[in-house]
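Sequence design from tokenized structure. All designs in this work follow the same two-part layout: the structure record, then the generated sequence. An example of the structure record is given first.
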């Protein structure tokens, strides 16, 4: 994943990003990441809007219209994914999906998108297993930024998993060599 250089505002003359600045047309490394974005939204207008943004940013989207479809899509994904979940959906709500995904131990970065903006709702959503929480109506630049955070987290997770596998393989080789070579 391509790294973006960051200069603190006190070290640059560049203007700070504001909500009025639109998200870039294509995200950094999104098209090459191969990580799908599952969209779970029961409102057709919201679903279409989110899907068009996600595709415009270069992601492969998997669109679902209720909680059961979303859970089925998330179960079918092999590897990592990002999920944009509405809290209130028919069949199974976003919190139930969060809990089930965490029980399955799949590596999915979950962003809850909801009109519920009270502090207790945010706490409840995060405690249910969401990684991030965005209150509707939200700014598309903020959604884009939060998806990028998810990509960075998933990239770190994948790097750590690969490194652990390499270390376990090296340990096995070390044990084999210690057994084969008389001391």
């Amino acid at each position: 994943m391509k790294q973006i250089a960051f200069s603190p505002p006190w070290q640059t003359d560049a203007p700070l990003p504001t909500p009025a600045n639109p998200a870039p047309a294509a995200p950094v490394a999104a098209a090459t990441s191969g990580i799908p974005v599952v969209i779970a939204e029961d409102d057709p207008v919201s679903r279409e809007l989110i899907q068009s943004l996600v595709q415009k940013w270069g992601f492969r989207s998997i669109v679902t219209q209720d909680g059961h479809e979303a859970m089925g899509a998330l179960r079918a994904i092999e590897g990592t994914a990002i999920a944009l979940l509405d809290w209130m959906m028919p069949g199974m709500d976003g919190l139930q999906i969060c809990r089930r995904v965490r029980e399955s131990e799949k590596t999915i970065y979950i962003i809850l998108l909801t009109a519920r903006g009270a502090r207790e709702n945010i706490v409840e959503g995060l405690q249910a297993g969401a990684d991030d929480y965005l209150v509707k109506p939200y700014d598309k630049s903020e959604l884009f930024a939060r998806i990028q955070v998810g990509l960075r987290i998933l990239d770190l997770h994948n790097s750590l998993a690969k490194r652990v596998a390499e270390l376990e393989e090296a340990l096995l080789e070390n044990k084999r060599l210690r057994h084969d070579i008389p001391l």
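Residues 23 and 141 are 5 Å apart (CA to CA). We note this feature because it recurs in several other targets discussed in the main text.
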